[in-house]
Design brief:
The complex is a heterodimer.
Chain A lengths: L1 H5 L9 H20 L7 H24 L20 H19 L13 H5 L1 H8 L5 H23 L4 H27 L20 H9 L1 H26 L2 H4 L4 H7 L13 H31 L3 E2 L2 E2 H23 L1 H4 L3 H5 L2 H13 L2 E5 L9 H5 L6 H5 L15 H5 L5 E5 L4 H6 L8
Antiparallel strand pairs in A: 1-2, 3-4
Helix pairs in contact in A: 2-3, 3-7, 4-14, 7-8, 8-12, 9-10, 10-17, 13-14, 13-17
Chain B lengths: L2 E5 L3 H13 L7 E6 L11 H5 L14 H5 L2 E5 L4 E3 L4 E3 L6 E2 L2 E4 L3 E3 L12 E2 L4 H10 L6 E4 L3 H12 L4 E4 L12 H13 L3 E3 L4 E6 L5 E6 L4 E3 L2 E4 L3 E3 L15 E3 L10 E3 L4 E3 L13 H16 L11 E6 L2 E7 L9 E7 L6 E7 L5 E7 L5 H9 L4 H6 L15 H12 L11 H14 L1
Parallel strand pairs in B: 1-2, 1-7, 2-3, 7-19, 9-16, 10-11, 10-16, 11-12, 18-20
Antiparallel strand pairs in B: 4-5, 5-6, 8-17, 13-14, 14-15, 21-22, 22-25, 23-24, 24-25
Helix pairs in contact in B: 1-7
Classes of the chains: A mainly alpha, B alpha/beta.
The structure holds flavin-adenine dinucleotide and iron/sulfur cluster (SF4) (2 copies).
Flavin-adenine dinucleotide (FAD) binds next to helix 1, strand 2, helix 5, helix 7 and strand 21 of chain B.
Chain lengths: 448, 455
């Protein structure tokens, strides 16, 4: 359909939208100027910058959605340059990837210095002192921006889906866990001279959990440290399997996790860019279990070294395995590609193809969870909205049009497929009976 | 190696092809050809609007990947059948050599009605049915400052929503007293009329299109209504219903009325020729059903039925209990069973509407026996299988109301409307019924099991 693609008239919005967008960009410009040392860092600039960004995003969302009746707001998604892989998407992808590269490998260009920050990092010093009485690091700056993104775009998301209580509750949850558990609590703990700990971030997503230095640090803190260690282990072997049994992996991936949090909120405009092809599904299964295997071997290696003092396992240096994992998986895959490629490959590239945590929860979900997406008899009209807006690239329609329930390892239970379905075909449900019978059963056949 | 030719790659034709491939797995290899002049690959007609609105790209509304057809050895022919030689069993094309078949399935779908409206041939006047219609609308769009849509049906409102998404002002002419009030009961029709206006659509009720005026260059300049109101516009959408697309078949030996006449086995008057989907007209439909039902679901069921007849045993077409669904801007609509626009004795109905005016539940029942007959839902999702089972089992209304939560299919955390519903029911009907079921999946599956053993 060439002519359709050539003749695009994007929806016209009120011109006020552009003012708010402009305000947000001004806030970002201040961050850029301070990175380039054009402005001298100071608390005032920080407040102005974050204030402009916040006001811009919030007012923008308000303007965009408050003027229209409640409902699905996907008009023009495949027309707008930012959400259809056109120039704006490429610019954003380049900016994001560059930022991640600097963050991981060249933080000094952002102004990080042991001897005293300058540039962008120094801009955040006042906030860092306020929270934990230390100078900022690149990770602090990242944490603030990351949390702010989830918060602001979480508000936008809530406004957009205000007719859907599942989306409201889920988004409040994911924002809360980022703000309280991932950001504030660890910073306060540092302030109280306790080890940095994000309680909800468990191994293997948190791949340094079993690092020698980390274990040592925890144990050095006596009871509280031991508690954190025990809690971390319990999360892996007890809490998370039980929750996954009851609710599916969604309890983590789209309700709690920080990576998921960013994808669901700031990434909402890009969810449709995920690849739905069978080929992508094959790559997904190969890659994600490879990463999981790698994570397990790497962790076994460092634990072995920690326990025995031997520096190599089966002839492989455990330290170099660990650093390769950190570089390739931890930084490049989950950060640079995972977030940097949002505007090009969709928001869940990391969650779908790389996250070892998602792999484990996915196996649990596929094998023994009560969670499934049920389909509503014969109501599906094969329109494709569900598949298009599934951030995990699941071809939901393929199941829905046959009347099959959907149990897929990768489904994060975001509920967007059910929200966008114009015929009320999909429902996320938990139930203990007939799981496999109903997933195999093709209920949309009339003649037995 | 029997060759089955199917004319039409819509839901009916494609379902037939898929099922023939599936059911003939253990038989001698069947050759399957599907011919279409509209598009190379099967697409979801119901999703045309979403392409225009930018929700999806063209390829997103194609339910199968392009490799699917080769893998399943379904031969796709992108061409127009000009004529059928039923005697020689051959399909004739314009240029290409004819194609012989052993069995023929006609699934040629519908086309838009235009009636005899003066000005219907002007540029800027179109219906919305085919891919080509959508392309035409797309290419006209940059010049449209105002669109007039005539006809208060399902396609008309979709067209209105499409233009609305591009900020093109729309006037909608509807003959009835409210939107689609020929099908919807009055309260629901009123609700949707209000909702249409909420979206700034200029809805003119009890108004019809009289003629379309020429701008002197063969394009639309405006329209005149039957109230002699003139409206300047660059586009006129004719959505006054569809009719079977069978003009090229009319002169031959095939028996047709409005559609191709078929018996309960979907057989036409010519041996080895079947008709399914929108183009088929059932000679003696089941009671309460129309002889032509131009909807997605019936096309799919017919496709499956004819495949069984061809590959297994002769199978009667049984559409089961009527159901349908649609979406009017932001309000979803579902219907199960019998829901007439005017509910008269021996039927009666219980109607509940949410204070926000965007949700409603209507239960239709037989006044004397109090057996449930139908469900009409606005802005609320109900479970198809539960509603169907209740109707099949001739469940009493009281029983349905007490267990109404079993039918709820809205996402988790949605407002539980059951207490309000039952309170109103008890008040209006002087009853004292208590809610019994939850809407947990386990409870629903339990209900299925129990009701199965009851039948
Ligand atoms: C905009 C729109 C929205 C709709 N929404 C809904 C909905 O929400 N729910 C619902 O239930 N129904 C809906 N419908 C109706 C539904 O789409 C149709 O009932 C269904 O698509 C009919 O399928 P079919 O296979 O019978 O025919 P079609 O889909 O019309 O397929 C017939 C095909 O045969 C081809 N053909 C015909 N003659 C020839 C020939 N001589 N040579 C070659 N090819 C030929 C045609 O070009 C066409 O491609 C909608 C229809 C439209 C137009
Ligand atoms: S299948 Fe649905 S709930 Fe699961 S990830 Fe995809 S869109 Fe979300
Ligand atoms: S489940 Fe809903 S969204 Fe998905 S194809 Fe079917 S009707 Fe469309």
């Amino acid at each position: 359909m060439k002519s359709i693609q050539n003749n695009l008239t994007p929806p016209i919005y009120s011109s006020r939208l552009y003012y708010f967008m402009f305000a947000g960009f001004m806030g970002l410009l201040i961050l850029l100027l301070s990175t380039l040392h054009v402005i001298t860092p100071g608390a005032l600039w920080l407040v102005i910058s974050l204030g402009l960004i916040s006001a811009g995003v919030i007012r923008f969302s308000w303007e965009l959605y408050s003027t229209r009746p409640e409902g699905i707001k996907n008009n023009g998604v495949w027309f707008e340059a930012i959400s259809s892989r056109k120039y704006a998407a490429w610019i954003l992808a380049i900016v994001l990837t560059s930022f991640y590269c600097l963050l991981y490998w060249w933080p000094e260009y952002l102004g990080f210095s042991e001897k005293g920050n300058h540039g962008l990092i120094a801009l955040f010093d006042p906030l860092s002192y306020l929270l934990k009485n230390q100078a900022a690091s690149q990770w602090f700056v990242y944490g603030v921006l990351y949390t702010l993104a989830i918060l602001l775009f979480g508000i936008k998301f809530i406004w957009k889906y205000r007719h859907n209580r599942y989306q409201l509750v889920r988004t409040v949850s994911v924002v809360f866990f980022q703000l309280a558990f991932a950001f504030l609590l660890p910073e306060f703990m540092l302030r109280m001279n306790l080890p940095y700990n994000d309680f909800k971030n468990m191994w293997p997503l948190n791949y340094y959990f079993f690092d020698g230095w980390h274990l040592q640090e925890l144990m050095n803190h006596g009871r509280i440290g031991w508690f954190m260690l025990l809690f971390g282990v319990m999360m892996i072997i007890l809490i998370s399997p039980v929750l996954t049994y009851f609710y599916g992996k969604r309890w983590y991936c789209s309700w709690v996790c920080g990576c998921g949090g960013l994808a669901e909120t700031a990434g909402d405009s890009f969810r449709h860019l995920s690849d739905k092809s069978l080929r992508a599904w094959k790559i997904e299964r190969f890659l994600i279990y490879t990463v999981l295997l790698f994570a397990i071997i790497m962790t076994a290696g460092i634990l072995y070294t920690y326990k025995t003092g031997q520096s190599s396992l089966l002839g492989l240096s455990t330290a170099s395995m660990r650093s390769v994992y950190g570089f390739v998986i931890g930084s490049m895959f989950s950060g640079v590609i995972g977030v940097g490629f949002y505007p090009l490959m969709g928001t869940r590239v990391w969650c779908r193809f790389g996250c070892p945590m998602a792999a484990i929860l996915g196996i649990q979900q596929r094998l023994f969870s009560r969670f499934r997406i049920t389909t509503n008899g014969g109501q599906c009209i094969s329109c494709g909205n569900c598949s298009t807006y599934c951030e995990m690239g699941i071809d939901v329609r393929a199941y829905a049009q046959r009347g099959q329930n959907i149990v897929r390892a990768s489904c994060v239970g975001c509920g967007i497929c059910a929200a966008v379905c114009p015929r009320g075909v999909l429902k996320l449900e938990n139930g203990s009976v007939d799981l496999h019978e109903r997933t195999n059963l093709i209920r949309n056949e009339r003649i037995g | 190696m029997p060759h089955i030719a199917i004319i039409g790659n819509g839901i009916a034709g494609i379902t037939a092809a898929r099922f023939i491939r599936k059911l003939s797995a253990s038989l001698p290899e069947h050759q399957i050809s599907v011919i279409s002049s509209e598009s190379e690959f099967f697409f979801s007609r119901t999703a045309l609007m979403y392409v225009y609105m930018g929700h999806m790209r063209w390829k997103d509304i194609q339910p199968y990947e392009t490799g699917f057809w080769e893998k399943n050895r379904i031969n796709l022919i992108y061409n127009t059948v000009q004529e059928i030689d039923f005697k020689e069993k051959r399909l004739k094309f314009n240029q290409d050599p004819p194609l012989s078949y052993d069995k023929l399935i006609l699934a040629t779908g519908s086309k838009s009605n235009t009636f005899d409206l003066p000005g219907r041939h002007l540029a800027g006047v179109t219906g919305l049915y085919s891919k080509q219609d959508l392309e035409r609308i797309e290419s006209l769009s940059p010049k449209i400052k105002k669109a007039v849509i005539t006809g208060g049906g399902l396609i008309g409102i979709e067209l209105a929503e499409m233009f609305h998404s591009r900020n093109i002002p729309v006037t909608m002419l509807v003959r009835e007293t409210d939107y689609w009030s020929s099908v919807l009961p009055p309260e629901e029709a009123k609700m949707i009329s209000g909702h249409i206006r909420e979206h700034h659509i200029d809805l003119k009720l009890e108004t019809q299109l009289k003629s379309i005026t020429d701008d002197g260059q063969g394009s639309v300049a405006g329209i005149i209504t039957d109230r002699n109101e003139e409206i300047a516009c660059e586009f006129v959408g004719l959505t006054i219903g569809v009719r079977p697309n069978i003009d090229f078949l009319r002169s031959g030996p095939l028996e047709c009325d409005k559609g191709i006449l078929v018996n309960e086995y979907l057989e036409t008057n010519i041996p080895d020729v079947y008709a399914i989907g929108d183009c088929a007209q059932i000679r003696t439909p089941n009671s309460g059903r129309k002889n032509i039902e131009a909807v997605w679901y019936t096309g799919r069921i017919m496709g499956e039925t004819v495949a069984h007849t061809l590959c297994r045993r002769k199978t009667m077409y049984n559409p089961g209990i009527w159901y349908n669904s649609a979406k009017f801007f932001d309000i979803e609509y579902q219907v199960y069973g019998l829901v007439p626009a005017q509910i008269k004795s021996p039927l009666n109905s219980f109607y509940w509407e949410d204070p926000n005016g965007k949700k409603s539940v209507r239960l239709i029942y037989d006044d004397e026996s109090r057996i449930i007959k139908g469900f009409n839902l606005m802005g609320i999702r109900f479970r198809h299988e539960v509603c169907e089972r209740w109707i099949q089992l001739e469940t009493k209304l009281d029983e349905v109301i007490a267990n109404i939560r079993l039918a709820f299919f809205d996402p988790e955390f949605f407002k539980d409307i059951a207490p309000e519903l039952i309170q109103q029911y008890n008040r209006e009907q002087g009853k004292n019924i208590a809610l019994r079921s939850t809407n947990s999946l386990n409870a629903v599956l339990q209900f299925f099991k129990q009701s199965k053993s009851n039948t």
